[in-house]
Amino acid sequence: MKKAKTKITVIILATIALTAFACSAFAETNYPSTDYGNATLITPKDNLIAKYNWLKSSDRDEIMGALSPTNRRTLILAPGRYVVDSTGLVLDTSYVDITTLTLSSPDSVRIYHDNPYANMRVIKQTAYDVRLSGFSVEACGESFEDNYALELKCSKDYTGCKISGATRTIRKTGIGTGGIQVEDVVCIPSGNNRGCYPIIEITDSDNIVVSGKLVSENNASLGIVSMHSCYRYLKFYSSYSIAVYGTSHFGGCWENCVSNWSSWISAANKMQYVKMYNCEGKLVCFGGETPGCYLDGFLFGCKGEEQSFGGCSNRGGDVNAELWFCEAGDGSYALGRTFSGKAYYCKGGAHCFAGFSGTKPYYYGTFSGYAEGCTATGNSFGGGNANCVNSGTLVNCRVTGMDDAMYCTGAKIRNSFIKTDGTNKHAIVLNDNNTEIHNSTLIANGSGNSIYAEDYKSVLALYCSMNADKSSNVINAVGDGTLEAGFCIISANIK
User: N or C: which end of the chain has fewer CB within 10 A?
Assistant: First the structure.
């Protein structure tokens, strides 16, 4: 007589708490090994690999039914530690899942190998559709270039798990259509391991969704970043957390992620396909620290500290991105390089938006983009040195504390405030006859002029307020050629 066929639905939902653990003694609870319809409960006394191979076997079809997306089988792990041999646990059959009795406490179930000299995977998934939840994966021992705790191939659901002590913690390989969902993953070095680098290494351009916490105590947390992938609600504690080297381009969609310094960088390469929303980093982030980097894409509400968004200590990278409501400190937004993008309501410090580097070796910025509602201080927007150029457009922008003038070549300045604090320095210097300044306040210092030209230059100046007499070399393009003819006000009381 055949055994009555019953099914148990296993809901695979979990959240990971991120704490370190090491290869050590572990408390176990005695549960009997039991079959429940299409689910099998095992204990650490059982052979994990043998039980998995038994459950996936077609010999189970008569009782459990053929495997399919709607007829899955589940291996349930009781609390305790499960050791695998040098072959690792190979998940080679779709629709056979692994879960636990303690989804909210992944530390209570650990799958591990403790061979300190093994280049091996604890778990290697080669099947397309596998769901894993609620346990920890621990690769103890030395750091090895080929030592992964978990290698995935197009997993549809990977939640509620923890990773520890692998050189490269999760490796994603293979090509498929389903993508990977990775949520709340931690990598904490254990034993003699020197770190986790990176937590996730993506080796193709398949779709991936990563969310929750992604943590590494040191070194990078993400290696090659897929331009087709999306990363949400990640928190990185290490510096150089998201770094791309070699010939790879940085890309992907990033939402509500937080990182340490030197993150989201691509050394001497392009960040051309990136879309970022409400992400936050520290020093030298978002293409910072990398001379020659090219930042493109769309960034909204992102915040960095000094030398971010194509910034550096004296020379950053070109920026052609569209930025909205972004914030950064000194030396940001294409320091000493070219800013040809668009910035809306962004904030910067000194030497920003293609500003003059100010430190040797000197680099001179060119601002040829568009900025609206943006603020910065000294030597910004193509200002601070005669070799810098502003040929772009400023609308409702405010620039204060400049050491030297803003040098304009065909610039368009509207409804803006520009102030120079450098001793006897001008506010605006004309390099050609094509600059237009409308309804703006221009404040020079000492004997400097609000608008100045070395030789005769024409400017279209309308409804401006200035604190210093014009140079005799400046001709207004309206009326009788005087600045007053353009309804401009010149008064020492303007500040």
Answer: N
